[in-house]
Amino acid sequence: MKQEQQTVIQVRQDSAITHKVSLPALAQLPKGIQKLREHRKRHPAPFDNIKRHKDGITRYYSDVSAVCVGEWVISQFTPLENQWVLLYPLDADEATSSDSPLLWYALHVKSGRVQREHLDNIEVLLTQFAFECVKSEAVYLPKSANINIGADSEEKRKPAPFLSVKSQYLQALPNKYLTQSLERWHRPALISVVCLCLTGLGTWLMLINNPPQITLTQAVDPFEAWSQQLNQTPLAETALRQSQKMLSNARLLPNGYQAKTLTLGGNTLSLEILSTLSSPNRNTFNRWHQRYWQHKQAAKKIVWNGSRAVLHTTLYLPPDDMTMSVLGRYPEKLYEQLRLLGIDELVLNQASAVGQIENWTLSGKVTSSNIATLGNIAYLTQKKPVFIQSLTVTPNLENEVDMAFTLALLGVTP
Q1: Which of 47, 291, 300, 414 has its CA 20 to 30 A from that of 226?
Q2: Final residue of a domain: which of 116, 150, 181?
Q3: Chain segment 259-287, per-residue pLDDT in tens
């Protein structure tokens, strides 16, 4: 790479390649200034850049001033696809083979928002972005790049337009594409702080003369809160794996029957079965039910309620001696993992702590997803204190499912 006069900065990612562009960390947050404040508190950084969207907030943050390359790329390049991936060499107009020593830039965009970006050699990027390439509608590369992006993604390959992704140019981008120092004090901000202080002083003087009535509230016992969760709510992993199994077996329902909606109520999973014929074959249905749900090796019996046309099973609740662990950054990590999995309308909320117990809720929706998504979410929550409060799964005619869920995450504070 050509030597520049500026200081070489090491990328904040798992790469041994040194270059002159630093990418910031990226977090997708729900709407609301409170969520941004909470994230800044949990992930402090001297530099950040906030992008506001109709459906949420994107926060870029870094230890030094960094370039939000993805934001600049989507301002220059707007494909027709809703979800796409860009692979482009840095400090070169184009590459000719996967053996090139050049540093490459990878970008994943969905609904006009940067989902993920990374700098590394092309082999590492092809591995790390394999899932995104499969899920996306298009994968853009330089026209002459002789790079194998995988059989599942090759048909989505499209030529990328020329982009001046050179270190010297990227570092000279306007401030709106850079993370900015949070220690900048401007006169208007200082005036606002002074006004707030005066307002607070006035309120304090009023309270001295008119003290408010004190209302005593009964504190919630941490042990009771934890015990109640264990005794009433199943673990997410248990419910999601059983749901996947029920819906998978429902695909083998005899002619005349169709799975409608699977729901969770308390610790009971119920799958509604519709009769699509006026006189379906009950005998064949009974054989199906006996084979998959009533044999001796069945891990959990599935009961058929003929009057309600519902299959239901009672899920095992967590053991009373289940150990509570420290959550740390797991709630935000799970949020990011589900977002990359394609879950939409994610909302992460933190409730007031009960003693030393942290209490989070994470809800989301997904449409036209593969049934394996249930198993994927179960895998992400296994061996974690993640409970499931609600779940609705509806199969569609394309052998896919629409799903909505709410998870509860409990753990002790560090």
Answers
A1: 300
A2: 181
A3: 889 999 888 898 888 777 665 667 777 77
